[in-house]
Write a structure and sequence with these properties.
This protein is mainly α and 88 residues long. Helices cover 59% and strands 5% of the residues. The chain is built from 3 helices and 2 strands; from the N terminus they run H-H-E-E-H. A two-stranded antiparallel sheet has the order 1-2.
């Protein structure tokens, strides 16, 4: 009985995650110093209109300049993100 309840909870949480991921965000760039507020929504960025870190495939940037600028900050966590994604 507990396994069935847990499975139902997991399914509900998955639905919430899918719904939340569909909400467009006005601006999303992993560079904390990015000041480009007129860039496309996260939905457009996910479809290939952005720079995505080739190491962890998690960090997204509005362009190459932001990706380069944020590298020193992102580098320490890049391997950890890649490892976590591989283990998931």
């Amino acid at each position: 009985m507990a396994a069935a309840a847990l499975a139902k909870l997991v399914e509900c949480l998955r639905g919430v995650g899918v719904a939340a991921a569909a909400i467009p965000v006005a601006h999303f760039c992993n560079n904390s110093r990015c000041k480009n507020v007129s860039w496309p929504s996260e939905v457009m960025m996910v479809t290939g209109h952005s720079c995505i870190c080739s190491g962890c495939h998690t960090a997204r940037y509005c362009g190459r300049a932001c990706q380069r600028q944020a590298w020193k900050q992102h580098k320490p966590v890049c391997k950890a993100l890649a490892a976590a994604a591989q283990n998931a």
